[in-house]
């Protein structure tokens, strides 16, 4: 692994995301609906649904919201969302990979393109930056929630099938093969760890510093993409902020 600390960036954006809590719940509801519709409403028999529910809970999404999304799928709603990805570059040449769930491809494509062009970025063709990211299972243990030392955590992670452990002052960050993600997550929970985050994500192979004179544009671009109702995830190869 490159040493890129995803948790550092997550914490750095937490306050901004708290202000968008309603929008986050709306996006999570869409993910839950699609997972339940395609794989069934029982999370025990639908690993994708279970993962999205865990993600919703980690974002403090109310149980009633989760239940409503599942019941909507059970009720035979005809709503359908297509999974689409967009790739491009932010100001300063920082690669960006965007995942969307949309019921109108033309609208979403137009909105994403406008977000890039108005904020100094450029939208690229499919495959232009995807190869710069790796799909990984990502698990975080807040160090304040465990008495285990780094050696013990590393042993447990390896025994669970994890690929890599990164340690910071605040957290243990675990990376897994996507196919082993659920198995590793469940094993760590069984070992008594409380997980601060657990998801499938995209990790950049290398990172690019954002030039000081491009930082504001870069942040505006990421905000514009995250504010779009159809955009589920925005991944960047920006180097960690100090």
TrEMBL record:
Is ATP-binding there in the keyword field?
A: no
Q: What's a single GO MF annotation on this record?
A: DNA binding
| Gene Ontology terms: cellular component | cytosol
Q: Where in the cell is it found?
A: Cytoplasm
Protein keywords: Cytoplasm, DNA-binding, Transcription, Transcription regulation
Residue ranges annotated for the TACO1/YebC-like second and third domain, each copy included? 81-236
Might you name a Gene Ontology BP term for this protein? regulation of DNA-templated transcription
Domain named TACO1/YebC-like N-terminal is located at: 5-75
What is the protein's major site of localization?
A: cytoplasm
- Write out the coiled-coil annotation as residue ranges: none
- Stretch list, region Disordered: 1-22
Family, according to the entry, reads as follows: Belongs to the TACO1 family.
Put simply, this protein is called Probable transcriptional regulatory protein HMPREF0548_0761
- Give the species this sequence originates from: Lactobacillus ultunensis DSM 16047
